[in-house]
Amino acid sequence: MKKIFVIVVVLVALAAVMYSVVGTGREDYIAQIEKARKEKDQYLRTSPDSPFNNNTASFNGLTYFPVDPAFRIQANLIPVTSKKVVTLPTSDGQERKYLEYGYAEFMLGGATNRLLILEIMEMGPYRGTLFLAFGDATSARETYGAGRYLDVKKVRGSSTITLDFNEAYNPYCAYNDAYSCPLPPQENLLTIPITAGEMTYSK
Fold first, then answer.
1. Exposed/middle/buried for 115, CB within 10 Å: 0-12, 13-18, 19+?
2. Total H helices, total E strands in the chain
3. The dihedral of CA 121, 176, 57, 142: what is its sign?
4. Rounded to two decimals, what is the model's pTM?
5. Is 94 in contact with 182 (CB distance < 8 Å)?
6. C-beta separation of 166 from 72 below 8 A
7. Element of type H or E holding 114
8. Cα separation, 117 vs 192, whole angstroms
9. What is the pLDDT of residues 149-187, one digit of tens each?
10. Pairing mode, if any, of strands 72-79 and 95-108?
11. How far apart are the first and last CA of the chain?
């Protein structure tokens, strides 16, 4: 009986330690996202490259959904074998060309979802980097109507890719009509709500 009691005490202690570690990791993650959001506000207030640079006095700070670790997703990466050029219209009636890279497939909202990840083709410092634009059921309601962007990185040889929707952000044309912003491809218009990341900016 004494041995059983000792085992139970040890298991309870281990569970407490695990909970503490997981809880700390969650808190650190939330703090990291919130810190990045504050730094972005500071950048938009002070940088000469800010879309508010001619009227920083009117900048009220960005608005976000509360940080939710459930929206940091490890998606399956499905490569596109026969890659094609994709032409996306922009907010000012122009066009941008991208190369298909792969599909991120993940479970969310009780359904399997797929997002097309594109590769930047234009010459310059961003050539070869990835581009992901999407819309969802919050678009034109709680979030910017023309969709949001999500930064993703190439990981050579990996069959998964991280989609952190807490880091979803508005393109600059959400704040200033002088910018030209690519719109999401049709297949990236999700039917589920992504209640994470940046919300509509209140001017």
1. buried
2. 1, 8
3. negative
4. 0.85
5. no
6. yes
7. strand 111-120
8. 18
9. 999 998 888 899 999 999 999 999 999 999 999 999 999
10. antiparallel
11. 68
pLDDT higher than 60, residue 7: no
Calpha distance 81→200 (Å, rounded): 36
C-alpha of 138 from chain center: 14
CB of 72 within 8 A of CB of 162? Answer: yes
Q: Are strands 95-108 and 111-120 parallel, antiparallel or unpaired?
A: antiparallel
108 near 192, Cβ under 8 Å? yes
**The token pair that represents 48 in the structure block:** 């000469």
Distance CA 144, CA 139 (A): 6
| Cα 117 from Cα 102, distance rounded (Å) | 5
Q: Tokens 């000012």: give the residue.
A: 92
Q: What secondary structure letter does DSSP report for 133?
A: E
Cβ count within 10 A of residue 23: 10
What's the Cα-to-Cα distance from 50 to each of 38, 54, 84, 172, 178, rounded to whole Å?
A: 15, 9, 34, 9, 12
Rounded Cα gap, residues 92 and 182, in angstroms: 9
Residue 27 one-letter amino acid: E
For residue 190, give the amino acid letter: L
- What one-character-per-residue DSSP string does 14-58 give? HHHHHHHHHHHHHHHHHHHHHHHHHHHHHHHHH-TTSTTTT-GGG
In this predicted structure, the answer to whether residue 115 has a pLDDT above a threshold of 70 is yes
Residue type, 135: G
3-state secondary structure of 160: strand
Q: Which of 199, 153, 159 is nearest to 61 (CA)?
A: 199
Q: What is the CA radius of gyration of the chain?
A: 21
